[in-house]
Design brief:
Strand content: under 5%
Largest sheet: none
Number of strands: 0
CATH architecture: Up-down Bundle
Shape: elongated
Number of helices: 6
Radius of gyration: 21 Å
CATH class: Mainly Alpha
């Protein structure tokens, strides 16, 4: 009789653990989806700005900001690899995760290559989208490390937006930090290097 009770309790315990694990994975799905979206957007920004920088080498935004986008991508990738090791490795110059990101890249590149002002406007569109999506990701993310990374990325995107919008319609140097350097004080050193 004792062994039947032990067997029943063990079965219940394993079932509860399995259920709790499944609930945790379901609860974590929005955070993971938002993280994958941000990885795609950082990749889009890097690839678009690098391509437009080849067309417009005179625009410092397209020479400086891709370096910041590379750092942003790496910070997200480091977090991703540590927390979702089962997912395939991602590369900054690789294919986009979402077909919609590829379509956005194609549209912005086609627009951006028509003139320097159109290229700067493409940068504005990317940064505005990034800020909007980072705000949405912050709203659903409880992990403090990821929140710190997102907050830093949002600050960088605000600087990039200022650099792109400050240059539109004029020949000034633009406003803001065109490199979009990350604030290392609020970003864990292991995540943002």
């Amino acid at each position: 009789m004792q062994s039947i009770h032990t067997l029943i309790l063990s079965t219940l315990f394993i079932t509860c653990l399995s259920w709790a694990s499944a609930q945790s994975l379901q609860k974590d799905a929005p955070t993971k989806d938002a993280l994958m979206q941000q990885l795609d957007e950082e990749r889009l920004a890097y690839q678009l700005y690098t391509s437009l920088g080849e067309i417009y080498p005179e625009l410092p935004q397209f020479q400086n900001i891709p370096r910041a986008e590379s750092r942003h991508f790496q910070a997200l990738k480091n977090y991703f690899v540590q927390n979702y090791p089962e997912i395939e490795q991602l590369d900054l110059a690789g294919d986009f995760i979402h077909p919609s990101t590829q379509a956005l890249y194609d549209r912005l590149y086609a627009e951006g290559k028509t003139s320097p002002q159109a290229a700067l406007n493409a940068g504005v569109q990317v940064e505005e989208l990034d800020i909007k999506d980072l705000n949405a990701a912050l709203a659903i993310t409880q992990d403090e490390t990821l929140r710190a990374i997102y907050t830093n990325l949002r600050t960088g995107s605000e600087h990039h937006l200022a650099a792109f919008s400050g240059q539109r319609g004029g020949q000034g140097k633009g406003r803001g930090n065109s490199e979009g350097k990350m604030n290392r004080q609020s970003c864990p050193a292991t995540r943002c290097k």
